[in-house]
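job 3f2a | input accepted
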Amino acid sequence: MRTPIVLYEPPRRLRTEYRIGLSAWTDKSLLDEGTFYPRKTMTAEERLWWYSRFFDAVEVNSSFYAVPSAATTALWVRRTPPGFIFNVKAYGLLTGHYLDVARLPDALRKMLPRAQATRPRVPSNVLGSKARSWAFGELRKGLQPLQITGKLGYALFEFAPSVTPTEETLSYLTTLPHEIPDAAVAVELRNGSWFGERTDKTLQFLKDYGLTYVSVDGPRSWATVLPAVTSSTAVFRLHGRGKQPSASKRSDYLYSEKELEGIARIAGAFNGRADRVHLMMNNSRQDSPVINGLKLKQMLVGSWHPPDRQALIEQLEERRAS
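job 3f2a | predicted structure (322 res):
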């Protein structure tokens, strides 16, 4: 990573809290091929309980495909210890992605133009502003149990690579803090046109509108590999440095200890400049994100030590027997 750019200046030096976690706690590769979870057959409650013994934050990826209900997020609250936080990815309709028609809820399916209804996938812009308003409303309802219990870290808007800094996009970005009030709104920009000569303008824009810039770590060919902080919340998403063309193969990557030391050094530079610094592992292949995430916790959270795995297995069996 490059030298970080710090635009946000707190009114006083902050006591920075570091949160490290995975981009999903039920990633298919982690479940099918990994050894992090002690049993292949575990309930959703057991997996979240086990995960929260090792990490105190997680990113919710499933919300990109379907907005979670308030009943679901209330379950997450009850199944995690005090202080645990969820970082929730916004629904794909809200970030310029294509949508799978088969996965659309009935309310959105009814809004599809007739010509699009028989297609397997449709661009999000065919649904229009009414659909977007509906999705924001559902997202606010889903986030409420997390917000009122202090368990929402940030709402993540991971924009499609096709999204560029047009006037329409910039205008839309300014509405996000109003659509998701009383929350950190994190923005990941994945098109190179936001950077290069435009980098300063992009970061200043995000700062001016209270938006959190998402610093990404990925292949060196990415134009978006730039650490920066634009609000009191700093977010790093670590995608892996694989050079393969497909996203799934790029994320099949295990960071070396030297690479993690470099990342920890950059994240450490935000100490005192942000309330909270999140580092989310998105190198989602088998146990790689767990191995790297636990190592980063040891580097950045000095008082933390990994729990006794065997003792936790015994607790799990006791929970099952009760």
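job 3f2a | Residues 86 and 152 are 5 Å apart (CA to CA).
job 3f2a | closed
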